[in-house]
Write a structure and sequence with these properties.
The chain has 357 residues and is of the alpha/beta class. It is built from 13 helices and twelve strands. The chain folds into two domains: 168 residues, Rossmann fold (3-Layer(aba) Sandwich), CATH 3.40.50.2000; 166 residues, Glycogen Phosphorylase B (Rossmann fold). Helix 5 packs across helix 11 and helix 8 packs across helix 12. The chain is elongated. The protein starts with a strand and ends with a helix. InterPro entries: Glyco_trans_1 (IPR001296). GO terms for molecular function: glycosyltransferase activity. Keywords: Transferase.
């Protein structure tokens, strides 16, 4: 099978989308070739049967220039080999640009989308795609008539528990992700204030991530201001984003991980933390199945700092052995529902059904 893949970023060191290089390598093991048209590229740690065509956003090419490159690359790929299926990852606009041509050629299109934003581009991509795929049901905001849930694709060989016990003088609460209002870090900072005042816990909070827009940069300023106003400068630390290969060590250091995004997202960072055997508190009810028997203890009301503080107090009141048992269970849930192997198997099964291979 020869695959055509559309991707936003193909860069092993990208803090947000670096994981797609893992997906591509796993897919490439099972197929003859993979041709990737990507908005931007960077470090490419890819198998020999993967070819990457960058539209040049990393070179600041204009949108018209990138559109011309898209069609030139698409033409080159379709002329050079027999493409059996197109997989579009978080790029509904690429689906819409290519689907009319691919339909004429009888090439099925599968589009991945996991985000609460319901745009006209997504609605059109839904119509033009043979199937839509997503990580969890609540991460897809449109009709489910074409939807197949395939899991998130966490590399459970990279994201593993620590082999040695980690002893902190103070419990460490961790949150990882883009520094953006939707991530709701302000609720976590308020919850830490409640926790300290009500329980006298000596705790530390580490927030890892970068802003990616002017709006995000303003939000970061507000977060630092909030920390100062609440006298938490000695408690809260901000750390820049790192590549996915450095994240496991950060996850392993924490006592508890907190994911604050609301239902409708499919934040992989929460699943990565669980794969590392860490207890994860979440505001996203879409994670209920993943949290399994611990869902009631680990889900908190979105933007409710008091509820989060109470859940944190409960987790911190447990013994190390109890938290480890909970973390071990969550890791097994990730392996069962969201492992990279399961994702690739689900995708390939779908691809073969659509191509009758």
């Amino acid at each position: 099978m020869n695959l055509l893949v559309f991707n936003l970023a193909t860069d092993a060191h990208d803090p947000i989308l670096g994981f797609t290089t893992l997906w591509l390598n796993k897919l490439a093991k099972q197929v003859q070739s993979v041709s990737v048209i990507t908005m931007r590229s960077g470090v490419l740690n890819l198998r020999e049967n993967i070819t990457v065509y960058s539209l040049g956003k990393e070179l600041d090419y204009s949108e018209p220039h990138r559109a011309m490159r898209f069609y030139r690359f698409l033409y080159e790929i379709l002329q050079s080999k027999s493409i059996h299926l197109c997989f579009s990852h978080m790029t509904p606009v690429f689906t819409n640009l290519a689907a009319p041509i691919l339909k004429i050629l009888g090439i099925p299109v599968v589009t991945w989308y996991a985000h609460p934003s319901l745009t006209n581009n997504l609605k059109l991509a839904h119509k033009l795609s043979n199937k839509m795929v997503t990580s969890i049901p609540t991460a897809y905001p449109y009709r489910h008539d074409k939807l197949v849930v395939v899991g998130q694709g966490i590399d459970t060989h990279l994201f593993t528990p620590s082999r040695a016990s980690i002893n902190h003088k103070d419990p460490l609460i961790l949150a990882v992700g883009r520094l953006s209002p939707v991530k709701d870090y302000s609720t976590l900072i308020r919850a830490v204030t409640h926790l300290i005042s009500c329980t006298n816990h000596r705790i530390k909070l580490l927030i890892v991530g970068n802003p990616t827009s002017t709006k995000d940069e303003h939000y970061v300023q507000l977060l630092h201001q909030q920390v100062q106003e609440l006298n938490l400068a000695s408690v809260v630390t901000f750390q820049p984003a790192v590549s996915m290969y450095k994240l496991p060590d950060i996850y392993r250091q924490c006592t508890v991980y907190v994911n604050l995004t609301p239902t409708g997202f499919g934040d992989k960072v929460a699943l990565e933390a669980m794969a590392c055997g860490k207890v994860c508190l979440a505001a996203n009810t879409g994670f209920r199945e993943t949290l399994g028997i611990y869902a009631e203890q680990l889900l908190f009301n979105h933007a409710d700092s008091q509820d989060l503080a109470e859940k944190l107090a409960y987790i911190l009141s447990l013994s190390d052995e109890q938290r480890q048992a909970m973390g071990n269970y969550l890791r097994q849930q990730i392996i069962h529902l969201h492992s990279l192997e399961r994702l690739i198997n689900n995708l390939l099964q779908l691809f073969r059904q659509l191509t009758h291979a």
